[in-house]
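Quick illustration for those who missed Monday's session on complexes.
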Amino acid sequence: MLIPLAISSVAAALVAVTSYIPYQSHLKLHGAHLNPGTLATQDQYLNLQHCEPVSPRLPNQSAGPAEPSFCEDVVLDSRTGMAYLSCDPTRLTWDARAGIFEDSGATLHDEIGAPAIWAWDTTQNRLPRRLFISSPPPWAKVQAPADLQSTFHPLGIAVTASNPYYLDEVEPDQDSRPAPPANLVLVANHPYANQTGVVDVFVHDLDKVGGKDNAVLRWIKRIEGEALQARLIDPDEAYTVNPFRIAVYAEQYSESIPRDYTKGSHISTATPQDLVSIEQDPAKLAASWVRVPSLFVTSLPDPALRDYAAKNDARRSALYDAFWKPFAAVLFPSHAKEAPDRLRKIFVYHASVGKTLMSRFDGGEPAQWDTFPPLFQTWDGNGKKGGSNSSVATIFVPSLSSDTAKVQEWEQHWVRGVAGGIREHVIAAPDINNSGNDLKHLIKTYTPSFVNFFSSEREYPIRALAVDNMGRFWTAGNPQTTAVENWISHQRTKRLEKLGLVVSVTPTDAPVRPAANIEQTTFVYRHFGSVIAHPWDFEKLATMKKRGIWLKKEYHTFTVFKSPDEALTQVQARTKDQLIEKGFLPTVPTGLAIDTASGHLYVTGAYEERGIARCKLPHDWVEA
Ligand SMILES: *[C@@H]1O[C@H](CO)[C@@H](O)[C@H](O)[C@H]1NC(C)=O
Ligand SMILES: *[C@@H]1O[C@H](CO)[C@@H](O)[C@H](O)[C@H]1NC(C)=O
Ligand SMILES: *[C@@H]1O[C@H](CO)[C@@H](O)[C@H](O)[C@H]1NC(C)=O
Ligand SMILES: *[C@@H]1O[C@H](CO)[C@@H](O)[C@H](O)[C@H]1NC(C)=O
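Prediction with 2-acetamido-2-deoxy-beta-D-glucopyranose bound:
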């Protein structure tokens, strides 16, 4: 027995050596090395006086049902100045992201509010308005799904103009396009615990009763089932996409749908193309027809895969709890905390054919970690003036492995030639002549592939990301992962108590509200060591791009806002003036939107009962 024993002690020593250092870097990444109190000092207050709740309320009170709270995501439409918020006050007990479906919370709607989309005209000094979902009238051809009014649990959200006409970049000698009369609001919705989610498409009319204050969100389409079955470029892989975050791919639109609910046929017999050919006013046409854009989408795990659901219990820590676990994870997958495969993918829903395909990420995919949701943002590479020909020239993805966190920049690239991304689809065409013939259309789709050139490293995992019009980005996160886990778990227990689902077990000492940071990342291009271009040098960058000159991009990150660890007693002791002066940031930020025109950053938190924050960008701290 001496020999096996000797071997096992060698193995043990090996385990110790090979896993100790990765384990230490893992702990550091999640802030486990920080001593209690480190994040509660004055140093951890930064520019908070510029951040205020979007509410007349003081930041020591919860938002009521008349204000948005528990908002996963926020998106800003730069053409209309309208921001849209996706908020679910039942989030603590109905959390599709974490695989928790304990209670959909309807009994508390009067007190905390119901899940909803909120619209906010950021150009006016007003508050966000809750939008009421309206279904097509009974006589309309297309009817809303039965669950639409009863169960609505929104996560990711995207916005675009009701028709691509309003997005076209015009030639310099042409009149620029008018503002769209309506926005399309696309929402990742998770109505059922045991099924994957859907994407609901809504119209928000801005030219009707109430103008931009119109409080009705009209449902027109649901993307689900077959349409979200990702058929892949590598044929042996297939996924049911469970939509989490979405972004508009302003190319290859759906057929035209009448903007107003119409009787009888959903698709009118006279197509807009026919009407254009008889020289109608394209602006008038655009105003009365809606076209659904293609979408980029990330996926949560499939709730039907129980295995994962059990493993992904959010009450389980994201951290390795022993130093040998990173090593063991290599040998025994049950110790692995890497997120499943589909969380690393980015899918494209092609509206022209109603099908989903997977984008190719050449040279390795972003790493994703268990319990951290798959985020991304798209950027158009400054559009035509930047020499770019795609609305998604670049995708930014936070990448999180056991010991590194970064934001990766993936650029659309033609490594395999454009042909590699083109697929042909044969689609049944509507039989508009009632000829009884099976008419087919051949439609081609282009699914872009991406290559990673640049990354920006972080000291802790990223929980929210926004990109501005120049490709600079904003990130938010919490330096201490366990503090976040404790805080959310405490909030959840309190909610369950309130719902009468658990007997009172909350410890009298609430955990601290964990500290949060927000930073801006900007860049310069270098050539042979000297800075030759800044983000705003559109023409220079376009010229370089056309000539095929490859420049080295260098990212620089600056922390702009910081909020500290806060004990409940500290907040309770504050006077009104102190509360205003100390400002407000959501505790666990999950959504960011940047308004470069007015110099504001909007911050939401999926687990935040106090609503959303608006931060004025402090002049000396940001590159504006
Ligand atoms: C999913 O859950 C709902 C409600 O709990 C139930 O009515 C439905 O039959 C379930 N569906 C499946 C596919 O299990
Ligand atoms: C976009 O530009 C690239 C590089 O110039 C070119 O290879 C590609 O074909 C263009 N794509 C489209 C859709 O025009
Ligand atoms: C409808 O009928 C017209 C006239 O016969 C024909 O030219 C057209 O191609 C038909 N369209 C379709 C979609 O069948
Ligand atoms: C918030 O602070 C104000 C001013 O100190 C105080 O009057 C009020 O009672 C506090 N509200 C809560 C809910 O703690």
